[in-house]
């Protein structure tokens, strides 16, 4: 697995890459603007070029932008939906300018309109946005949800429904967040539990649709539906819950981004979490292949970078 983390860009886009390299990242996730804003200042071409050059110079294997928190592509409210679609389209264009591999986003919440209606609205939103940016090859990755309130995507079938309705496998995919999976009721802490989860992923989504992971422990218990991240090994999932993911060869060329808590020690906590994850690799920290291997069912024994 290509291990990395979500880093801030307050020091500059290219500096985020260098900071990631210092703590041992080989993949990087960022916000392209404040996640609490509908829009952000335009990205200067020189800043985008510097970011792309830093990614290449540091030999990062994968990069992603995470969408902000305000947009809701499932909203039943016309004004909010229009605003959300415009914000999302802007984010796709920003990600394209930065040259990242993926834009990761929360599917949205139906706000009482019903699950099927919400899923249909998300799919309709994505179809329209993809038509607006045919030149972009940034893959849009739906992130699974913890299942709080009317949020959509805590069930794999809901993610699969959106993918099927859009029917653009070349442009869409899924990010699996471990904390959200656990909060939604998937217990993958044992080898058997992990195998059952992966069988379900294969049956409902197909493992080939999974293009990234968010590697987060969970503060709240199994099935709590609470999105509360914890540092690796410090929460309810525990260190052993990550061993199966790290040693599954299906994910050897897939990015795994930390979104674990930070404090006044800054990125030292990320560095500790990366060290913990790499310690779980049975084959050691050997270089991952440059190209994604063929997907295999229930394979074991990955290389971790």
Describe the structure concisely.
The chain has nine helices and ten strands. By secondary structure, the protein is of the alpha/beta class.
Overview of the structural elements:
This protein is of the alpha/beta class and 305 residues long. It has a single domain (2-279), classed as TIM Barrel, CATH 3.20.20.150. The protein has nine helices and ten strands. The protein has helices at 13-22, 45-57, 78-98, 115-132, 156-166, 178-183, 191-204, 240-246, 268-279; strands at residues 2-6, 27-30, 62-66, 102-105, 139-143, 172-177, 210-215, 217-218, 229-230, 255-258. The strands form two sheets. The protein has an eight-stranded parallel β-barrel. It has a two-stranded antiparallel sheet with strand order 8-9. α1 (13-22) runs parallel beside α2 and α4 crosses α5 (156-166).
Indicate the topology.
Blueprint: E1 2-6, H1 13-22, E2 27-30, H2 45-57, E3 62-66, H3 78-98, E4 102-105, H4 115-132, E5 139-143, H5 156-166, E6 172-177, H6 178-183, H7 191-204, E7 210-215, E8 217-218, E9 229-230, H8 240-246, E10 255-258, H9 268-279
Parallel strand pairs: 1-2, 1-10, 2-3, 3-4, 4-5, 5-6, 6-7, 7-10
Antiparallel strand pairs: 8-9
Helix pairs in contact: 1-2, 4-5
């Amino acid at each position: 697995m290509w291990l990395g983390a979500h880093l801030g860009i307050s020091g500059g886009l290219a500096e985020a890459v260098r900071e990631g390299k210092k703590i041992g990242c080989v993949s990087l996730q960022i916000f392209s603007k404040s996640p609490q804003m509908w829009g952000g200042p335009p990205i200067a071409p020189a800043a985008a070029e510097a970011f792309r050059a830093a990614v290449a110079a540091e030999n990062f294997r994968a990069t992603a932008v995470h969408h902000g928190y305000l947009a809701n592509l499932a909203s039943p409210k016309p004004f909010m939906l229009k605003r959300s679609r415009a914000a999302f389209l802007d984010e796709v264009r920003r990600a394209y300018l930065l040259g990242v591999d993926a834009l990761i986003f929360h599917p949205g919440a139906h706000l009482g309109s019903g699950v099927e209606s919400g899923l249909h609205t998300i799919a309709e939103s994505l179809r329209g946005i993809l038509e607006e940016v045919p030149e972009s090859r940034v893959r849009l990755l739906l992130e699974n949800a913890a299942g709080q309130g009317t949020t959509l995507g805590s069930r794999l079938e809901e993610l699969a429904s959106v993918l099927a309705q859009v029917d653009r496998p070349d442009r869409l995919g899924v990010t699996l967040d471990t904390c959200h999976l656990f909060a939604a009721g998937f217990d993958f802490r044992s080898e058997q539990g992990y195998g059952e989860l992966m069988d379900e992923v294969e049956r409902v989504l197909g493992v080939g649709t999974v293009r990234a992971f968010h590697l987060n422990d969970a503060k709240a218990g199994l099935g709590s539906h609470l999105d509360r991240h914890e540092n690796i090994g410090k929460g309810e999932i525990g260190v052993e819950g990550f061993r199966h993911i790290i040693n599954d060869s299906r994910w050897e060329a897939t990015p795994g981004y930390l979104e674990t808590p930070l404090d006044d020690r800054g990125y030292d906590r990320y560095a500790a979490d990366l060290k913990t994850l790499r310690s779980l690799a049975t084959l050691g920290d050997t270089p991952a292949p440059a190209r994604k291997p063929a997907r295999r069912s229930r394979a074991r024994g990955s290389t971790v970078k």
